[in-house]
Design goal:
By secondary structure, the chain is of the alpha/beta class. Helices cover 29% and strands 19% of the residues. The protein has 4 helices and 5 strands; from the N terminus they run βαβαββαβα. It has helices at 23-33, 49-55, 95-105, 127-141; strands at residues 8-13, 37-42, 59-65, 75-78, 109-114. Helix 1 (23-33) links the parallel strand 1 (8-13) and strand 2. It is globular, with a radius of gyration of 14 Å. The chain starts with 7 loop residues before the first strand and ends in a 10-residue tail after the last helix. The relative contact order is 0.23.
Length: 151
Amino acid sequence: MRMEKNTTLLMGIGNILNGDDGVGCYIAEKMREIGWAAIDCSTAPENFSGQVSRYSPSRVLVVDAALMDLPAGSIRRIDSTKIKEVGFSTHTMSLSHFMDYIAEECSDATLIGIEPHSMALGTPLSSEVLSSAERLIEILLNDEVDLIPYL
Protein backbone atom coordinates (compact mmCIF):
# COMPACT_ATOMS: atom_id res chain seq x y z
CA MET A 1 0.00 0.00 0.00
CA ARG A 2 1.39 3.40 -0.98
CA MET A 3 0.14 6.38 0.95
CA GLU A 4 0.26 10.03 0.05
CA LYS A 5 1.05 12.61 2.69
CA ASN A 6 -2.05 13.76 4.57
CA THR A 7 -3.86 10.51 3.85
CA THR A 8 -6.56 8.99 5.98
CA LEU A 9 -6.02 5.33 6.84
CA LEU A 10 -9.14 3.31 7.61
CA MET A 11 -8.76 0.17 9.72
CA GLY A 12 -11.76 -2.16 9.82
CA ILE A 13 -11.99 -4.65 12.67
CA GLY A 14 -14.23 -7.67 13.18
CA ASN A 15 -15.09 -11.23 12.36
CA ILE A 16 -16.94 -11.69 9.07
CA LEU A 17 -18.16 -15.11 10.23
CA ASN A 18 -20.18 -13.55 13.08
CA GLY A 19 -22.83 -11.48 11.35
CA ASP A 20 -22.69 -7.79 12.23
CA ASP A 21 -19.32 -8.21 13.94
CA GLY A 22 -17.86 -8.07 10.42
CA VAL A 23 -19.07 -4.55 9.65
CA GLY A 24 -15.64 -2.95 10.09
CA CYS A 25 -14.12 -5.45 7.65
CA TYR A 26 -16.96 -4.86 5.19
CA ILE A 27 -16.39 -1.09 5.24
CA ALA A 28 -12.61 -1.48 4.88
CA GLU A 29 -13.07 -3.69 1.81
CA LYS A 30 -15.55 -1.29 0.21
CA MET A 31 -13.31 1.72 0.86
CA ARG A 32 -10.26 -0.06 -0.55
CA GLU A 33 -12.25 -0.92 -3.69
CA ILE A 34 -12.78 2.79 -4.33
CA GLY A 35 -9.16 3.73 -3.77
CA TRP A 36 -8.92 4.55 -0.08
CA ALA A 37 -6.04 3.42 2.09
CA ALA A 38 -7.95 0.79 4.04
CA ILE A 39 -6.99 -2.36 5.92
CA ASP A 40 -9.24 -5.28 6.87
CA CYS A 41 -7.66 -6.07 10.24
CA SER A 42 -10.01 -8.96 11.01
CA THR A 43 -9.85 -9.74 14.75
CA ALA A 44 -6.22 -8.78 15.31
CA PRO A 45 -5.72 -5.07 14.56
CA GLU A 46 -2.41 -5.10 16.45
CA ASN A 47 -0.96 -7.16 13.58
CA PHE A 48 -1.35 -4.08 11.39
CA SER A 49 -0.14 -1.43 13.83
CA GLY A 50 3.25 -1.31 12.12
CA GLN A 51 1.59 -0.01 8.98
CA VAL A 52 0.40 3.03 10.91
CA SER A 53 3.94 4.00 11.88
CA ARG A 54 5.35 3.02 8.47
CA TYR A 55 2.91 5.13 6.44
CA SER A 56 2.42 8.00 8.91
CA PRO A 57 -1.13 8.89 7.85
CA SER A 58 -2.51 12.24 8.94
CA ARG A 59 -5.65 10.53 10.24
CA VAL A 60 -6.57 7.00 11.32
CA LEU A 61 -10.19 5.86 11.47
CA VAL A 62 -10.88 2.57 13.21
CA VAL A 63 -14.31 1.02 12.51
CA ASP A 64 -15.80 -1.83 14.52
CA ALA A 65 -19.08 -3.27 15.75
CA ALA A 66 -19.69 -1.91 19.25
CA LEU A 67 -22.21 -2.87 21.91
CA MET A 68 -23.33 0.59 23.03
CA ASP A 69 -26.93 -0.10 24.18
CA LEU A 70 -28.30 1.84 21.20
CA PRO A 71 -30.66 0.79 18.41
CA ALA A 72 -29.10 -1.57 15.85
CA GLY A 73 -27.21 0.33 13.19
CA SER A 74 -26.47 3.39 15.35
CA ILE A 75 -23.13 4.99 14.47
CA ARG A 76 -21.06 6.78 17.12
CA ARG A 77 -17.57 8.10 17.61
CA ILE A 78 -16.20 6.62 20.80
CA ASP A 79 -13.92 8.76 22.90
CA SER A 80 -10.87 6.98 24.31
CA THR A 81 -12.18 7.52 27.85
CA LYS A 82 -15.33 5.50 27.02
CA ILE A 83 -13.76 2.54 25.22
CA LYS A 84 -13.77 0.37 28.35
CA GLU A 85 -17.52 1.00 28.77
CA VAL A 86 -18.31 -0.38 25.31
CA GLY A 87 -18.46 -4.05 24.35
CA PHE A 88 -16.03 -5.19 21.65
CA SER A 89 -16.13 -8.94 21.48
CA THR A 90 -13.62 -10.45 19.11
CA HIS A 91 -10.23 -8.87 19.66
CA THR A 92 -7.00 -10.48 20.66
CA MET A 93 -5.77 -7.19 22.14
CA SER A 94 -7.66 -4.63 24.18
CA LEU A 95 -9.06 -1.99 21.83
CA SER A 96 -8.18 0.60 24.45
CA HIS A 97 -4.48 -0.33 24.25
CA PHE A 98 -4.63 -0.44 20.46
CA MET A 99 -6.16 3.05 20.25
CA ASP A 100 -3.56 4.36 22.71
CA TYR A 101 -0.83 3.05 20.40
CA ILE A 102 -2.50 4.56 17.33
CA ALA A 103 -2.83 7.92 19.12
CA GLU A 104 0.92 7.90 19.79
CA GLU A 105 1.59 7.36 16.09
CA CYS A 106 -1.08 9.68 14.71
CA SER A 107 -2.52 12.66 16.55
CA ASP A 108 -5.86 12.29 14.76
CA ALA A 109 -7.15 8.82 15.63
CA THR A 110 -10.89 8.15 15.79
CA LEU A 111 -12.79 5.02 16.81
CA ILE A 112 -16.18 4.63 15.12
CA GLY A 113 -18.62 2.03 16.44
CA ILE A 114 -21.73 0.60 14.80
CA GLU A 115 -24.30 -1.07 17.06
CA PRO A 116 -24.86 -4.67 15.87
CA HIS A 117 -28.22 -6.38 15.54
CA SER A 118 -26.89 -9.95 15.57
CA MET A 119 -23.46 -11.48 15.87
CA ALA A 120 -24.59 -15.06 15.40
CA LEU A 121 -22.11 -17.43 13.81
CA GLY A 122 -22.62 -17.91 10.08
CA THR A 123 -25.04 -15.05 9.52
CA PRO A 124 -24.60 -12.15 7.08
CA LEU A 125 -24.70 -8.48 8.02
CA SER A 126 -28.20 -7.54 9.16
CA SER A 127 -30.19 -5.11 7.04
CA GLU A 128 -29.91 -2.44 9.76
CA VAL A 129 -26.12 -2.69 9.95
CA LEU A 130 -25.66 -3.00 6.19
CA SER A 131 -27.68 0.20 5.74
CA SER A 132 -25.57 1.94 8.39
CA ALA A 133 -22.37 0.70 6.74
CA GLU A 134 -23.44 2.28 3.46
CA ARG A 135 -24.36 5.48 5.30
CA LEU A 136 -20.94 5.54 7.00
CA ILE A 137 -19.23 5.07 3.63
CA GLU A 138 -21.06 8.18 2.37
CA ILE A 139 -20.02 10.07 5.52
CA LEU A 140 -16.40 9.07 4.91
CA LEU A 141 -16.50 10.04 1.23
CA ASN A 142 -17.98 13.43 2.13
CA ASP A 143 -15.36 13.96 4.85
CA GLU A 144 -18.09 14.38 7.48
CA VAL A 145 -16.72 12.13 10.24
CA ASP A 146 -16.79 15.06 12.64
CA LEU A 147 -20.60 15.16 12.29
CA ILE A 148 -20.97 11.67 13.78
CA PRO A 149 -22.14 12.14 17.37
CA TYR A 150 -20.06 10.92 20.28
CA LEU A 151 -21.31 8.14 22.50
